[in-house]
User: Fold this.
Amino acid sequence: MTQLLDAIDWLFRHTLRSVIFGIALMVSIAAYVAIGSGLPGVREYFELDELGFFNAWPLKALMTLMVANLVTVTLQRIPFTRPRYGVWMVHTGIITLIAGMGIYYGQKVEGTAFLIKGRTINRYYDRFERALYFQAAGSVTRVALPSLPRFNPYATEHGNESYLDRSDLKELSPIMSRSADGRIGTAADAVGAKALNFTVVGYWPYANLRDRIVEDAKQAKIGFAFSLPDADSGESHDRILAAGLPRYAKISWGTADIEHRELPDAGAVDKLVAGAKAAHMLTIKVADFEQKQAVQVGDTFQLGNTGYAIRVESFNPQWETIDKKIVPKLTFLVAAPKGLTYRRMVLGDGLGRPTDFKLGEAGAGPMGKRQKELLDPALSVDYAFDAEASLIPKNGLGRTLFVTTANSPKTTVLSVEANGPVTVQTIDGNAGHLDLAAPQQEDAMLMASVGRPTPRDTFHVDVKRSDHVGNVETYVEEVPKAIRNRDEGSSGRRQIVRVNYAGTDSEDKPFSGTVLVPFSERPFETPWQGGLINVPNASSVAQIQLANNWRPLPALARLDKLEAVAYAGMDPAAGSMIRDYRSTLTLTDPVTSKSRTDTVFLNSPVFYGNNNWIFFQASFDIQNQMWSVLGVGNRPGVYIMVTGCGLIIVGIFYAFYIKPVLVRRMKNQALAKAQQSGRLKPDLAPAGVN
Assistant:
């Protein structure tokens, strides 16, 4: 027993009571912080971000030992006297600073809030923690994935999938709703199944999802594989098109549809093409002259020898009239005799009388000045539109059809759109290329109707045809580190997880499957890609998506105004030489309903909640000025750390400037007292002491 007590005493004297041990701890802490700050590869090896690394147990252990050493050394070696008040303040300041840092790294959160002009939001996306989102029956929910890795791939292909064997990644059952009586609605309830859960079994931090056709010689299904640039980012994505596979019979490309259609013979193909080219039919009369002509947007033609010329400018299949009717509308420019030029709008199938617009009038709109009466009654134009033959989708601006027939290697590719002529291209055999114009934007019809069509890029697309499509396989293509984009890597937008799902359907039959799930930066604001779940006898389509976990904002936030401030002589819409971005917000306390309006701009954040929260400008819609992205973060423990720093500064000042004065004064007082008592020789007395 004595030996044990002696060992404990020796350990105590050489650790908590040892100044050298304290110095060693400070060196260790400094090295840990330097590695965590300057060598991100070390953090990533242990799957820790910045906050996680500085909140990990090794640093907590070092800090705890440091505090214990400081307290012990201070209490046992430094008496609490006036000359040593400075040391006590410094040590107290260090302990306070460590406590504040522990609170900061333990409670700190960061993220981004996506705001659309005029809308109020109550959430932001956490920068570090991700969640598995589930969508079915018009509702969205999520389950947090706090232990999901971030920096390294884990999958059977890498032989390290066991890393994902964690409780918060297994048998996940997202909760859809909670009723007043305590009943919980789950993901299974949303799709009409008895049970449904998910398990994460693979993870890639930076990869692409690719599709490829799996051929089967026994099948006679035709399919096509090609790549198209994303309508927003321009990034290329693999696409599969196959009428024999319902999921791949039609795909979307921005505002356009791409569809594979199988017809019985070549005659049916010719009829389809002819119908599309003749969908717009004009019957034109001028005096004794009459002309019936099929037209397309962009056509220019003469009316015999009448002196009239017409240029078809735009078409809108979903024009809303004053009495709320949806009708097709065609707009064209008329060059009449005697130098008269005007714009005329006609509605399909006589659903409204034509309307003329006079050009060049001051204060007129972009189409011209609307006229109550026709500028040129001599010109009569009747317009008929064949909606079915036009092939233009009701909810889109264009469509491209891949048309095939049985026992023929020929593929006819027919492209139609609201504001452009019908184009026909041919692929003969199992490989070829197409020239496809980028999808039209939403404002294309407006711009074209005033004679200013929006220029668009044309993409050269290589197409491979397969005549024996068995299935489509989605796979992960990992991007090598050498060619990764740093911004995309830090945002995490290329993350992919492999998820196993299992359950029992409405008939108590078990089912299971595996799906590759991509990452979405804004799961509530943008359409989801992939992640479809095949639940037998489901009452609703189910889909999952990986995204950053959302958290509640400390205030309801509404974006009232956006402003891009350019340098003098520059146009903000050009997107260059912008001096400042400003977002005007209304922040409302969800408890008291009190509101305040403030403006966030570069290098000038807004503080909220007794300065415990900060909002700063992170991104901005320069072109349309319709949305803004704010950085969001809290500041836990900041005041405690400031107090600690203040104590250290005051303590150092006390030790270097006040302590010497106190020591000198105390020494003089002691010598004077000794002289008066006769215990000090006169020649040893300090100056001024008799």
